[in-house]
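so my prof wants the structure for this chain in the tokens format not the other one, which i didnt know existed until like an hour ago. anyway here's the sequence
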Amino acid sequence: MVILHATAPIKPEAREQWFAILDAVTPPSRAEDACQSYAIYEAVETPNTFIFVEEWASLDGLYAHFHTPHFTEFFAALGEVIAGPPAGTVSEVSSTKTLDEAFAAAGIGG
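here's what i got, hopefully its the right format
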């Protein structure tokens, strides 16, 4: 599994346009075969900063996503709404536990 975590600060006056851009990229991204999860949140502490948390089956799946028409259109539209450069990480995960499994391994719960 691959996890992408990115933040994107947007111009406050561009919120409507930003949400339209997200509406265009989110459904087709979620429909991609390699996409396991695709979520976008707004940071509570820093309004107009959005956080992408995406899970992909593989790096190849993520890289293919970067070449889809909906992503290239999204990326091209960023210049109109972005207030600073996006930043983030892409991590390859070798194992995953549920939260309950992690709590049990840490000796929490009953």
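also thought this was worth mentioning. The beta strands are 2-9, 35-42, 49-56, 87-92.
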